[in-house]
Amino acid sequence: MMLTTPPLSLYVHIPWCVRKCPYCDFNSHERRGAPLFEAYVDALLADLDHDLPLVWGRNVRTVFFGGGTPSLMPPEAIDRFLQGASARLRFAPGCEITLETNPGTAEHGRFEGYRAAGINRLSFGVQSFDDGCLQRLGRIHDSAEAEAAIKLAQDAGFDNINLDLMYALPGQSLSMAEQDLQRAFALRPTHVSHYQLTLEPNTVFAARPPAGIPDDDASWDIQEHCQALLADAGYAQYEVSAYSQAGRRCDHNLNYWRYGDYLGIGAGAHGKLTLGSEQAILRRWKHKHPATYMAHAGTAAAIGGDERVAPEKRPFEYMLNALRLVDGFALAEFAARTGLAPADIAPRIDAACSAGWLERDGDLVRPTELGRRFTNDVVSLFLDEAA
Ligand SMILES: C[S@@+](CC[C@H](N)C(=O)[O-])C[C@H]1O[C@@H](n2cnc3c(N)ncnc32)[C@H](O)[C@@H]1O
Ligand code: SF4
């Protein structure tokens, strides 16, 4: 089987935050003094130049500014980066361009600037609308500020908005989780990401877990109840944590889950690229620390590592992503994205079907409800063995 080049996305990492949240293990560093945004844009463009030969001639379908807190960047800096990027790469018509936004960084006039720069989707890190929960999460904003920021963005003309909410929060009851959703719905976002709070290693919460985190059963009840509320409000679930109105799925994240390609630019950013001529899949990541990254961007010294994904590792990587999707995947797409024959994984697909974890309809394979509850077990079937 041949690897064929899938759609290409561009991920841009902005590594600063006003304050580090105690649950967060993203590559984010507390801002000390004013970050050097202009110098960072220079570094991003140099980084992009260095990676360009890997994607020669391909169109970029989506761009995502993630963090960290990309909304710390002034619109002029975002504009300069996007102008520079579009001079180097072809952006496909209708390209989705998302900026992650912390509601505590919204300032009057900013959203107009982001729109003028070409951003057409915002993703707000709301987490909760309960002020007690927000405080326990160490957030820099309260619920009124979050609502005001979202309205400012809508007034500036943004009509494609995601809200990140977390559930199973310290001290959160089922009705509090429901309240969070009701307040989200009142703002009419097009998309909701609903994440269960996880205690990530090497975070303050992992070292000192806060009191009152709902246990597994209570968390499951919250999830089931919230899934139903989201569906009733018109938000169809299409991935473990992602819900959207019709036609408003996040193209960028869908490309990850479909094992598409992405360039990763910025401190600690990860990329995955299919190299057609070599019939290889390359993973490349950049140095995590902003100062080290900026000192070396545009040279090989900014690269934290390069790894070629061996064929026998591809089924696991593919399933880790594709089985998050409610619609699953097509075997033909598995073949195109991994370069492997569907027959190579047929016994494992059959075993998962017998266990009631997957169901198959011709070329289509999708997780059952049981399979979605035990994603880790299903995915581990595809671990490691020679394909
Ligand atoms: C990079 S942050 C989003 C933007 C911005 N940094 C902010 O927090 O407002 C991505 C999202 O991941 C989620 N998240 C981060 N850490 C998490 C954790 N430990 N458990 C569950 N969700 C988490 C949060 O909902 C967060 O908004
Ligand atoms: S603002 Fe977002 S990226 Fe920054 S520390 Fe908090 S959750 Fe992490």
Hey, roughly how much beta strand do the residues contain?
A: 15-25%
Task: Briefly note the CATH topology name of the largest domain.
Answer: TIM Barrel
Small-molecule components bound: S-adenosylmethionine, iron/sulfur cluster
Annotation field: number of helices: 15
Shape, per Cα inertia axes: globular
Number of domains: 2
- Please give the largest β-sheet: 9 strands, mixed
The CATH architecture classification of the largest domain is Alpha-Beta Barrel
Determine the fraction of residues in helical runs and give it as a percent range: 25-40%
Rg over CA atoms? 21 Å
CATH class of the largest domain, please?
Alpha Beta
Helix-strand category: alpha/beta
N/C terminus separation: 13 Å
CATH homologous superfamily caption of the largest domain: Aldolase class I
Number of strands: 17
pLDDT under 50 segments (min length 5)? Answer: none
Let me know the average pLDDT: 96
Describe this entry's structure for a reader.
The protein is α/β, with parallel strands linked by helices. The chain folds into two domains: 8-255, TIM Barrel; 312-380, Winged helix-like DNA-binding domain superfamily/Winged helix DNA-binding domain (Arc Repressor Mutant, subunit A), CATH 1.10.10. Helix content is 37%, strand content 24%. Strand 5 (90-101), helix 3 and strand 6 (121-127) form a beta-alpha-beta unit. Helix 1 (37-51) packs parallel to helix 2 (75-88), helix 2 (75-88) packs parallel to helix 3 (110-117) and helix 6 runs parallel beside helix 8. It is globular, with a radius of gyration of 21 Å. Bound molecules: S-adenosylmethionine (SAM) and iron/sulfur cluster. S-adenosylmethionine binds at residues 23-24, 26, 66-67, 69, 100, 102, 125, 127, 164, 166, 195, 197-198, 200. Pfam families: HemN_C, Radical_SAM. Keywords: 4Fe-4S, Chaperone, Cytoplasm, Heme, Iron, Iron-sulfur, Metal-binding, S-adenosyl-L-methionine. Its cofactor is [4Fe-4S] cluster.
